[in-house]
Specification:
This protein is α/β, with parallel strands linked by helices and 504 residues long. The protein is built from 22 helices and 15 strands. It has helices spanning 8-16, 25-33, 48-58, 70-82, 96-108, 118-121, 124-136, 160-163, 166-171, 186-195, 224-234, 245-257, 271-282, 316-323, 341-352, 364-382, 387-394, 407-410, 419-434, 441-448, 454-458, 475-487; strands at residues 38-41, 62-66, 87-90, 113-116, 140-145, 177-181, 202-205, 213-219, 237-241, 262-265, 288-291, 304-309, 333-339, 491-493, 501-503. The strands form 3 sheets. Strands 3-4-2-5-6-1-7 form a 7-stranded parallel β-sheet, sandwiched between helices. The chain has a 6-stranded parallel β-sheet with strand order 8-13-12-9-11-10, sandwiched between helices. Strands 14-15 form a two-stranded antiparallel ribbon. α13 (271-282) links the parallel β10 (262-265) and β11. Bound molecules: adenosine-5'-diphosphate and zinc ion. Adenosine-5'-diphosphate (ADP) binds next to α3.
């Protein structure tokens, strides 16, 4: 017997005008059409929306999409309408009279796709009213949970109202749940499946490699502004990320003085100004947006050609997401991180500001996590290994460079042969492990370099065979070797904030 296959490529061409699926899309579409629960992890720009939009149009009922940001909903619906697809959104930005008009339309079958804010969907009023009628009438194809990582406290964007979405599963157990996200850490993945009570979900894990992005790190110096201006003048839509509002305003006005069309975006601006500025950027009325990381997910501009981090990102995950706003259309784009030693001091200072507002005591756990994240960013910035390999390793994805699209692969610095030192480092970890002990890189380097500290002597580590065998290398050299071993996954780091090393 021959399996029935729906000819999807015809529909793809007819409805969206695309010639072929992007990697991973077709598999997801088929599982959605088969009525399964789905968890799909795809990088930004991978084309997640199509994975639920295409099936929505091929199925008889209505598909409901939960999306966390008003701007994002508006963009998506506008794009659908541009393709003559009947879609609408319902959220707090809409007048009550218009909401009831759209709800009537929903029950009448005017829309194939309806985008909703999570807090609205779980209102008893909505659950008992429109949702039940829809279920009994036209039928619900699926509940689509976009940006599903918002359900997890381990993600970078936790939203408590997402937690209540499991109500949908309880109320309408027969309706498939489809969760989409661009956050791939294993912890978030498990959390999504648990929190949303997904049932034997088809998990689609696309590669997080974004081959069209060129990654580079530039030293921060008095020339950095010149570098930025040169990038701006070279053309293409760009985003500049800064750490503080003050910085955003400074950089914006400097660029404006130099005749660049640019607008700021940060939490100090009122909502309307932010929306206007973002809109101006999407429509290419301005070339550049200078933003703090408050620059939410609302940005849905496919042709950003470059992203510059003028200051250090807070974690490697944030860096991946923020730089990932570039090149969503698949064309080449550049991601540049400016990095200088002063950034480390600033970051460390900000971490120390994490205190309990009531007691004034430091929030130790948060500080420890923040320090670990900072260390990972520094490793990335200082490393001479393939930048792409480091990022993908962070997402647990095996990737061995060179990638041909990062500064370290394309402009490699001269490297020494460190194989002897590598063995010494690994054997030090192994010696400690035999004694049931684990330490971070700094301490292991102390052992190798034969430091005469009381701490070290009292633990008896000066009697290890590896004690002092690495005296002739500097701490710097050992540090970079340790990072390199980590990137090559020869050693692992504990994720409890202590960063103790172990052999893989
Ligand atoms: P994300 O995964 O970040 O949500 P989108 O769904 O917004 O990505 O898609 C990113 C861009 O890629 C959009 O401009 C979309 O139209 C385009 N796109 C998606 N699928 C395809 C395809 N199969 N062929 C060509 N372009 C596509
Ligand atoms: Zn590379």
């Amino acid at each position: 017997m021959r399996a029935m296959t729906v000819p999807l490529s015809g529909a793809l061409k007819r409805i969206f005008g695309f010639d072929a699926f992007r990697p991973g899309q077709e598999g997801v579409v088929r599982d959605v059409l088969a009525g399964r629960d789905v968890l799909a992890l795809m990088p930004t720009g991978g084309g997640k929306s199509l994975c639920y939009q295409l099936p929505a149009l091929l199925q008889p009922g209505v598909s409901l999409v939960v999306s966390p940001l008003i701007a994002l909903m508006q963009d998506q619906v506008r794009q659908l309408q541009d393709n003559d697809i009947s879609a609408t959104f319902i959220n707090s930005s809409i007048e009550p009279a218009e909401i009831s008009r759209r709800l009537k339309g929903l029950l009448r079958g005017d829309y194939k796709l309806v985008y909703l804010a999570p807090e609205r969907l779980v209102l008893t009023e909505f659950l008992d009213g429109p949702l039940n009628s829809l279920s009994a009438g036209l039928g619900i194809n699926a509940f689509v949970i976009d940006e599903a990582h918002c359900v997890s406290e381990w993600g970078h964007d936790f939203r408590p109202e997402y937690r209540q979405l499991s109500t949908l599963r309880r109320r309408h157990p027969q309706v498939p749940l489809l969760a989409f996200t661009a956050t791939a850490t294993p912890r978030v993945r498990t959390d999504i499946i648990g929190q949303l009570a997904l049932r034997d979900p088809a998990v689609h894990l696309a590669s997080f490699n974004r081959p069209n992005l060129f990654y580079r790190v530039r030293p921060k110096s008095k020339h950095s502004y010149g570098d930025l201006l040169a990038q701006a003048r070279a053309g293409g839509a760009g985003i500049v990320y800064c750490l503080s509002r003050r910085r955003v305003d400074e950089v914006t006005s400097q660029l404006q003085t130099d005749g660049v069309r640019v607008l700021p975006y940060h939490a100090g601006l009122d909502g309307q100004t932010r929306r206007d500025n973002q809109e101006a950027f999407i429509r290419d009325d301005v070339q550049i947006i200078v933003a703090t990381i408050a620059f939410g997910m609302g940005i849905n501009k496919p042709d950003v050609r470059w992203v510059i981090h003028y200051d250090l990102p807070k974690s490697l995950e944030s860096y991946y997401q923020e730089s990932g706003r570039a090149g969503r259309d698949g064309d080449p784009a550049y991601c540049t991180l400016f990095f200088g030693a002063s950034d480390i001091r600033t970051a460390e200072f900000l971490i120390q500001q994490k205190i309990d507002p009531n007691t004034g005591e430091p929030l130790e756990n948060e500080q420890r996590i923040a320090r670990q994240q900072l260390r990972q960013v520094l490793n990335y910035a200082e490393s001479s290994d393939c930048r792409r390999a480091i990022q993908l390793h962070y997402f647990d994805e095996a990737f061995t460079g060179p990638c041909d699209a990062c500064d370290n692969c394309c402009e490699p610095r001269t490297t020494h042969d460190y194989s002897v030192e590598a063995r010494q480092f690994l054997s030090c970890i192994a010696r400690l492990a035999q004694r049931g002990e684990r330490f971070g890189a700094a301490y292991i380097i102390e052992i190798l370099r034969g430091a005469r500290t009381e701490r070290l002597q009292s633990r008896g580590h000066d009697s290890l065979s590896v004690y002092g065998i690495g005296k002739d290398r500097s701490v710097q050299e050992w540090r970079s070797l340790a990072r390199s071993l980590m990137h090559q996954r020869l050693i692992g780091q504990s994720q409890d904030g202590y960063s103790a090393l172990s052999l893989n």
